[in-house]
Amino acid sequence: MDYLELLDRFVPENEEEAQTKRLFLDTCRSFSKTILTRENELVHLTVSGFIMDPTLEQMLMVHHNIYKSWSWSGGHCDGDDDLLGVALREAREETGLVRVEPQTGDPVSLDILPVLGHWRRGRYVCPHLHLSAAFVLIAQTDQPLQKKPDENSGVRWFDARQLPQICAEVQMIPVYAGIVRRARRCGGVNPVDIF
């Protein structure tokens, strides 16, 4: 399936999500030749994996080196248009998980996220936007974990109710909370607010 068709399968729950989806898809189409690569310095299509245990009570987070916060796994597509494949690969690379599966094959969140200018591998990266397609991924908590030092300084399971205490990126808390609610609805678990 074409990655744009996959993104279009996202079902907005409110006007905010509908407008974000429209702009997200319009931007992907406008920059169709470079959106999947970092060649486009203004906007990158990225993929995130929000990893949860089968009970949907625990979440596996990485302590991101740039943002200094516990966050989801993920990264740039770097030319790969298999968005779910990228999410699974990044989850394995960043956490050490061996067994991780998608809850569904569809994205659960489309977000337009600002990225501040920063240094990476000796090179300055200008401020830009990430168009982030997020997937819920499921893994057992008994697997060995391993950090990826060039990207994160830790990998750890948390109770989902701990989000407000562990996430230093205040703007990401509602994004993560919305993903947890969607994951629980999809998994047949009561999607009550997590905190």
Summarize the structure.
The chain has helices at residues 3-8, 15-30, 83-95, 163-166, 173-186, and strands spanning 43-52, 58-64, 69-71, 73-76, 101-102, 109-115, 118-120, 123-125, 128-138, 152-159. The protein is an alpha+beta fold.
Any overview of this molecule?
- The protein has 195 residues and is an alpha+beta fold.
- It has a single domain, classed as Alpha-Beta Complex (Nucleoside Triphosphate Pyrophosphohydrolase), CATH 3.90.79.
- The protein has 5 helices and 10 strands; from the N terminus they run ααββββαββββββαα.
- The strands form 2 sheets. Strands 1, 2, 3, 4, 5, 6, 9 and 10 form an 8-stranded mixed β-sheet that branches. A two-stranded antiparallel sheet has the order 7-8.
- It is globular, with a radius of gyration of 16 Å.
- The mean pLDDT is 93.
